[in-house]
Structures are given as C-alpha cells and as structure tokens.
Design goal:
CATH class: Mainly Beta
CATH architecture: Sandwich
Number of strands: 10
CATH topology: Jelly Rolls
Low-confidence stretches: none
Strand content: over 45%
Largest sheet: 5 strands, antiparallel
Length: 141
C-alpha cells in the first residue's frame, strides 16, 4: 500500500521520444539541465529489439557546448551490463544513475547494425530538488 508519492519531488525530462532506429547513425538526445536538482537517474525503455545499440555514451557539460563522456566513477550501476542484460529481450527497462558535478547531460546512442528496426525511448528523472515541491508535469498536446 502506497501512503506517499514522490511526484512533487521528481521531474521527468525526455531524452528520446519513442523512436524507431533502422540505421547506424548515432543519435543524440535532448539536453538535460540539472540545475536545482541533486540526483539524476537515466531510464532506457527498450521496445522491439532486432539489433542492439553498439554503444550508449552519457556525456556531461558545464556549459551546454563542450561535451565529455562521463567517467564510470560518476555513474551508479554498470551501463553496459544493464543494457546487455536486456539486449535480447523486447520490452525491457534499464537504468543508470549520475553523480557528477556538471550541469548538463545528454546521451548518444549508436546502433550496431542497420539490418533491423529497433524501438527506443529514454527519460532522465531529476530528483532531490533543492527547492521542493516540483511542479507536477502536465501532458500537453
């Protein structure tokens, strides 16, 4: 039984809208501004998988212009293991935490082959707001 909710303590941010990938061109997510939050969890929703991504790189930046791949010491969990564990199963989730000191984040997905069609979607869940409560996100048309 849930007695409490966290909706006013978290802010979801879209990284990738549901997208079908059928090429090997790297895809860069939208930028996430973490200003005002002390916790970040990246959640990957892997739908119909025919080819797995050959790499998922999380980048951070102090200024939203110069991007650097995040070192493993700033990631909570093993991104490669999380993704590999669901690589052959459709409709799975994988997550990774970020504890770096940069304000901006982005994700770059690179599919391994162009022979299939893959459905991906991802969000960043910002938490531990410095000023609670966070405005509840509303759906827009």
């Amino acid at each position: 039984m849930a007695r409490f909710d966290d909706v006013s303590l978290m802010k979801p941010v879209r990284l990738f809208s549901p997208i079908t990938i059928g090429a090997t061109t790297p895809l860069t997510s939208t930028t996430v501004d973490t200003l005002g939050f002390d916790a970040v969890t990246l959640i990957f929703n892997l739908g119909a998988i025919n080819d797995m991504v050959s790499s998922i790189v999380i980048n951070d930046s102090p200024d939203d212009s110069v991007w650097t791949a995040v070192a493993d010491t700033f990631l909570i969990g093993n991104l490669e293991a999380n993704i590999a564990s669901v690589a052959t199963d459709d409709n799975e989730l994988a997550s990774i935490g970020y504890r770096g000191d940069k304000r901006y984040l982005q994700v770059v997905l690179t599919p391994s082959t162009a022979s299939g069609t893959n459905l991906y979607c991802a969000i960043a869940l910002l938490g531990q707001p410095q000023k609670a409560a966070v405005a509840v996100s509303q759906f827009t048309a």
